[in-house]
Design goal:
With 118 residues, the protein is of the alpha+beta class. The protein has a domain at 32-108: SH3 type barrels (Roll), CATH 2.30.30.100. 24% of the residues lie in helices and 32% in strands. The chain has three helices and six strands. The protein has helices at 9-25, 28-31, 75-81, and strands at residues 39-44, 48-56, 60-69, 89-91, 96-99, 103-108. Strands 1, 2, 3, 4, 5 and 6 form a six-stranded antiparallel beta sheet that branches. Residues 6-23 have low confidence and may be disordered.
């Protein structure tokens, strides 16, 4: 006979209060970087891309003004001050479709989208 795991009442109360606090402090639309017109940095399973979202479908994310970024340097520094000078940047000449199954991370890109090869 298997026993069901016992959950502590205090653990349930604590996690519920954390969830309600986070919902009250942020608007859901502000948290999601996957919105039309947003400038984003995308980490896929093999590379980084920047671009402006022009379409979000069930399976694809379409970007314009997109660029392949070979190396971001320290990710925190990249997001805080932009790409390092030694970054390898390859802009795409036309829109890019990224399979959503290959996406690891998407975050807002607060800098101008890189459009120059370096």
């Amino acid at each position: 006979m298997s026993k069901k795991p016992v959950r502590s009442k205090s653990a349930s109360v604590k996690s519920a209060s954390v969830k309600s606090a986070s919902v009250k402090s942020a608007k859901p639309a502000d948290l999601n970087p996957l919105r039309l017109g947003a400038h984003v940095l995308i980490q896929t399973v093999t590379l980084y891309c920047t671009g402006r979202i022009v379409e979000v479908s069930e399976s694809m994310l379409i970007l314009e003004d997109a660029a392949w970024i070979a190396e971001t340097g320290r990710l925190n520094a990249c997001l805080s001050v932009g790409l390092p000078k030694e970054a390898e940047i390859e802009p795409y000449p036309s829109p890019v479709a990224i399979n959503r199954d290959a996406i690891v991370l998407v975050t807002t890109w607060p800098w101008a989208l890189p459009r120059t090869v370096s």
